[in-house]
Amino acid sequence: xxxxxxxxxxFIGYHISKKLLAKGHSVVGLDNINDYYDVGLKLxxxxxxxxxxxxxxxxxxxxxxxLFERFRFVRMNLEDRNHLPELFANEKFHxxxxxxxxxxxxxxxxxxxxxxxxxxxxxxxxxxxxxxxxIEHLVYASSSSVYGNSNDVPFKTSQNVDHPISLYAATKxxxxxxAYTYSHLYGFRTTGLRFFTVYGPWGRPDMxxxxxxxxxxxxxxxxxxNNGEMERDFTYIDDIVEGVLRVLKDDYTSSYNxxxxxxxxxxxxxxxxxxxxxxxxxxxxLKRTAKKNMLPLQPGDVLRTWADVSDLVRDxxxxxxxxxxxxxxxxVEWFRNYYKV
Length: 341
Description:
With 341 residues, the chain is α/β, with parallel strands linked by helices. The protein has one domain (2-195, 237-270, 300-322): Rossmann fold, CATH 3.40.50.720. Helices cover 39% and strands 18% of the residues. The chain contains eleven helices and 14 strands. The strands form four sheets. Strands 3-4-2-1-5-6-7-12 form an eight-stranded mixed sheet, with helices on both faces. It has a two-stranded parallel ribbon with strand order 8-11. Strands 9-14 form a two-stranded parallel sheet. Helix 1 (11-22) packs across helix 8 (237-248) and helix 9 crosses helix 11. The longest helix is centred in the middle third of the chain and has 21 residues, at 112-132. The radius of gyration is 19 Å and the shape is globular. The termini are far apart. Residues 3-258 form the NAD-dependent epimerase/dehydratase domain. Pfam families: Epimerase. Keywords: NAD. This is NAD-dependent epimerase/dehydratase family protein. InterPro entries: Epimerase_deHydtase, NAD(P)-bd_dom_sf.
């Protein structure tokens, strides 16, 4: 297939693109390479897809690497209403995997406009392009944050998600509603994937895994919010990639009704881990003790996430299962190699 992957220079987008290419698909990767976090890390990811740092600064470039000769990179904002339709018209994608978004819960308190531009206006442009250019299937990233501070755990896709506690979560809930409307009105398939606390090699520097590892190795204190009394369903990146690929290729194993055009799935490890236990596992891997700066709960943070993935098991016979200690080992190994620690 020819697949558009938006957010291709991002953490999940990079891994998805790499796996799709390895499986023989053609990929057009789109990203605006903004400076929300270290641009150098984004450019390094693209280098591993055959796009040199200089090439990533221009409008579009075919990868120079023979290994990834079916990859082309396009630098563009999703909000670009002129060039995005042109891209769809020229490339004639089979499916679209929309992972581009302004990420981060706390940052949404500081810069709300960025979330509306990218996550709402940008997603609308993706939907319009899909309906106008005969896209078979749109797979897009949602988030576990849509569940807010629900006490009904584990989180099921059937439960009410009308109470997001951050603007980021509200935009992801909005994406699901917008996708439903477009599937209903125009008949193309949309599948939303609610990711649960993704971590692993090439991860984002603003995430706990990255922040904690860096601080501990530098002998600095780590900020532990809500005094560590939070729980997260930490999900290793390879498990996320496998789930996304199964959805993209529609490898159904049950009597799923394909005529139902709109679906939403949780992709999580189905195991809620206390933050202090997560830190202890990291300390064990690093063979160092963290200096903990205990702080109150931050605005927008949820107390607990825990995924019910029964729908994913039913329709795709898939359950993420990488243990936290194994996942931490792989991340730390990458971190040490990448930063030469």
